[in-house]
Amino acid sequence: MRLLALVAAAFLLTVFQTQAQIYEPYNGYDDFDGYGYDDPYSPYPPPLDYDPAPPYQEPLHDRRQPPTGRAKGTIEIVTSEHTLIYTTPWGEQFAYPIAVGREGKQWYGSTRVVSKRAHPEWRPTAGMRQKNPRLPAVVKPGPANPLGTRAIYLADGLLRIHGTNDPSSIGTNASSGCFRMYRQDVEELYEIVQPGTKVIVRR
């Protein structure tokens, strides 16, 4: 009987201690790890209040040029000229200097824009991380992010038109296949191009 009373007392003590336990508030609900908001098919947007860079600046040069008969509503990338030309659906034309893929990393053909992301994460491919084990699995938005402040995703899921953290590479063959733009240029293009836009990549 005495043993039963001791067991009951121990049980009640445990219950009261459990009820009195104080838990710290969980501080990770706004952590976007694992949501993959750089994924063009993801429903999760980046944090609304995130802006790692200074406010948008007007382009140093007006990129508009006279129409040249290109198809309306189309992005044309001329790799050999390091130029991206966007002809709007209403016929206005913009030409931007870009960086293109290194030798052996270039792609040619037709695709389309599937989505856009402001302040994207960068996730190096398995091949990139195998070649350079120092690369992290994810690079968060910020000055070290190779995608810059904007990314425009193309239909194959791997190629992008995006900003850069290395503006000196614009006008060269520097990337692993994507198309880099100056920050103010990609932010302008991001605002005017829409998903579904045809993209033609030429030599």
Salient structural properties:
globular; eight-stranded mixed barrel; alpha+beta; 203 residues; 17% helix; 10 strands
Can you describe what's shown?
- It is built from three helices and ten strands, in the order H-E-E-E-E-E-H-E-E-E-E-H-E.
- The chain is an alpha+beta fold and 203 residues long.
- It has an eight-stranded mixed barrel.
- The longest helix has 19 residues, at 2-20.
- The protein is globular.
- The N and C termini lie far apart (91 Å).
- 24% of the residues are buried.
- Mean pLDDT is 77; it is low at 15-50 and 52-56.
Outline:
The chain is α+β, with helices and mostly antiparallel strands and 203 residues long.
Tell me the strand order in the biggest sheet.
2-3-4-9-7-6-5-10
Average of pLDDT = 77
- Distance separating the two termini: 91 Å
**Gyration radius, in Å:** 25 Å
Write the element-wise H/E pattern from the N-terminal end onward.
HEEEEEHEEEEHE
- Count of DSSP strands: 10
> Roughly what fraction of the amino acids lie in strands?
15-25%
Secondary-structure-derived class: alpha+beta
What general outline do the C-alpha atoms trace?
Answer: globular
In DSSP terms, counting alpha (H) and pi (I) runs of 4 or more, how many helices? 3
pLDDT < 50 runs, ≥5 residues: 15-50, 52-56
Could you give a short account of the major beta sheet? 8 strands, mixed, barrel
Q: How much helical structure, as a percent, in the residues?
A: 10-25%
